[in-house]
Write a structure and sequence with these properties.
single chain, 7-stranded mixed sheet, 2 domains, 3-stranded mixed sheet, Rossmann fold, 8 helices
Length: 306
């Protein structure tokens, strides 16, 4: 059995990938956000989810894991719900709490030296932390960069970058997922009504923002990357209804589907909070690739893990 520790669950994509697989055990999840903790506990009753910050919990207090999986946490947490000390994101050299979390995750990895670490670095962020992970001695470090999420089953132009460090060198496996038609991800019979004034202003170029991107599911196969900003402005990307031809924003369910979450998965909180949790996620397709084609492939071939 391969033992994994997760630092920052960010929606629970890796937890869901592990639940749908076998041979990997999640020892614990150190999650700074109360909202994410509640969502994880609602979906995984037996999972050891700790409202914990890696800088608070010393490495010497934690059992060593075979794999440490680290999500980006480039965001601010509310002081009344977070286990992360609030830092000034305008500090020189700081990108907010994300840099603080990455720094302490690096400390954990360098002290415990797990057999594998995976860092979801994003693109063009946390460059100092990424440099430190890439230069760790006694590790073979690979960087994976995805220009979009289509090969992992997500119909989104979602760029992702990962650093993978292993004690032994190995070649990655690759089991590409066939991308389903975009219509499969859309809800049927959504009665949204007329677009609000702010969306019409954007459509008519009467706003400072860029015009809305309009998705026609009869033509388009992918959508732009739906980020946390969609929780504030859902006029960024609009979809043409297949039946009525009217334009509307994506629903929370559709956004969750874009990220690979089944309709049965529970995101707790308001619609805005749900969108933030979903879009903070790496996506279930990416997580499944990392789990099966990286983690399990490595241990099964280099260590003959059961």
């Amino acid at each position: 059995m391969i033992n994994m520790r997760i630092i920052n669950s960010n929606g629970g994509a890796m937890e869901l990938a592990v639940a749908n697989s076998n041979g990997v055990h999640i020892m614990d999840v150190l999650e700074p956000s109360t909202q994410n903790v509640d969502t994880l506990r609602a979906n995984f009753a037996s999972l050891n989810v700790r409202h914990e910050y890696i800088g608070t919990e010393l490495a010497s207090n934690l059992a060593k894991a075979d794999v440490v999986y680290i999500n980006v946490a480039k965001k601010e947490y509310a002081a009344n719900e977070s286990a992360v000390p609030i830092v000034d994101k305008n500090m020189a050299g700081s990108g907010g709490n994300g840099v603080l979390v990455m720094k302490n995750a690096f400390r954990l990895v360098s002290l415990q030296e797990p057999d594998m670490f995976i860092v979801e670095t994003g693109l063009h962020i946390h460059t100092a932390a990424s440099e430190a992970f890439a230069a760790l001695p006694r590790y073979y470090v690979k960087q994976l960069v995805f220009k979009d999420a289509g090969k992992c089953g997500h119909p989104m132009k979602k760029k992702k970058s990962f650093l993978i460090g292993t004690k032994k060198d190995f070649s990655l496996a690759w089991n590409e997922i066939n991308l389903a038609p975009l219509t499969n991800f859309l809800e049927k019979g959504v009665d949204y009504g007329d677009l609000p004034a702010y969306a019409m202003n954007r459509m008519n170029r009467n706003a400072k923002s860029f015009p809305s991107v309009v998705i026609d599911p009869s033509v388009d196969t992918m959508v732009p990357n739906i980020t946390g900003h969609y929780a504030k402005d859902d006029s960024e990307v609009l979809v043409k209804d297949e039946v009525t031809g009217m334009l509307r924003p994506f629903t929370v369910t559709e956004i969750a589907r874009f990220y690979g979450f089944p309709d049965t998965y529970q995101f707790l909180g308001s619609n805005r909070q749900k969108i933030r949790q979903i879009t903070d996620s790496v996506g279930v397709g990416y997580a499944s690739f990392l789990l099966n084609d990286v983690v399990k492939h490595y241990f099964n071939n280099c260590y003959q893990a059961a």
